[in-house]
Every structure is written in structure tokens, then in C-alpha cells.
Amino acid sequence: MKYSLGPVLYYWPKETLEDFYQQAAKSSADVIYLGEAVCSKRRATKVGDWLEMAKSLAASGKQVALSTLALVQASSELSELKRYVDNGDFLLEASDLGVVNLCAERKLPFVAGHALNCYNAVTLRRLLKEGMVRWCMPVELSRDWLVNLLNQCDELGIRNQFEVEVLSYGHLPLAYSARCFTARSEDRPER
């Protein structure tokens, strides 16, 4: 069993993130996810900053996965995603099917993030063909669902071809919004 530390889903200043990941480098976590997974408008930390933090974590012996946006809506976001995909060193956590497609085009392995809404073995088989090496179970699924799904994977002969990751501690990332950060930055109430 490995322990993973998921990406920070809150908006923290760059310096706070750097301090956090310096501490994470000393933690017992085997895998560390980092990157902007919520909102592209939170630009205090740039792609280059994330990559530098990833290099530092890798140098400390951690396996690093770069987390990507769950909602890709603009061409600027797609351009930024391509920089992540073309990083050359780190595994990507695909939280959007666009990232899966970019990785598959380049024959790169990826982690299927919990935001992909993958609920059955047939979908897992498809993602496996595209390059998936690890699947993060959607947070709303139960243990019984997981057991059933893994049994389906056994029946398809694919169970031992990918790792499985489940959320075991922390706040559940249940919803994503294209408007939340913008509304807050403009002092507009969220409805």
C-alpha cells in the first residue's frame, strides 16, 4: 500500500504552497499530487512554479503527479494543459477527458483522476488502452461499488494492469464551478 497526498484545492498564495510542499517532501507520503485542479483564474502560481516544486519533491524521493483542471473551458486553459502534458518528467492526473486525449496522442501514461466520473469496468478498460496506469475512484462511490467494479475488472482480465487509489482522509472535493473564484474576486455573491 502507498500513501498519496492530493493536490491543494484551496487558493493559497505561492509562498504558502511552497512551504506546504517543502513539508510534504519530509512526510511519509509516497505519491504527491500538485497543480491547479480547480480554477485557471487562480494565477498566483504558474506552470513553471508547479514544475519547480515537482522537481524539488522528486529530488526528495517522492513520486510526483501533476494535477490538471477538472473543467477545461478556454483555449488558454488548453494551452496551459499542453505545457503540463509536455513537461517530460512527471505523470499527469487527468481530471478532464481532454487531458486523457492529449496524453493518448503522445502515448504518455496518466492517472485517471476522480473527477473523470469513471463508474464501470468497460470505461476503465478504455482508459487503460489510452494509457491509464492508476485510477482514482470517484469520491462518492462506496466500498461495495469498488469491490463490484474490481470484480468486473477481473472478469475482463484487466485488474492487475493499473493501480487503484481511494480517498481515505480529508474534505471531499464534491463540486467544481466555473464561476466561484471569479465571483469572489469581483465581490459578487455566489448563488
From TrEMBL:
Membrane-crossing residue ranges in chain numbering: none
Keywords, sorted A to Z: Hydrolase, Protease
Keyword Protease on entry: yes
Repeat as UniProt keyword: no
Gene Ontology terms describing biological process: proteolysis
MF-aspect GO terms: peptidase activity
Coiled-coil segments: none
PANTHER family (UniProt xref): PEPTIDASE U32 FAMILY, UBIQUINONE BIOSYNTHESIS PROTEIN UBIV
Protein's recorded name: Putative protease
Protein's organism: Salmonella enterica I
Gene giving rise to this polypeptide: yhbV_2
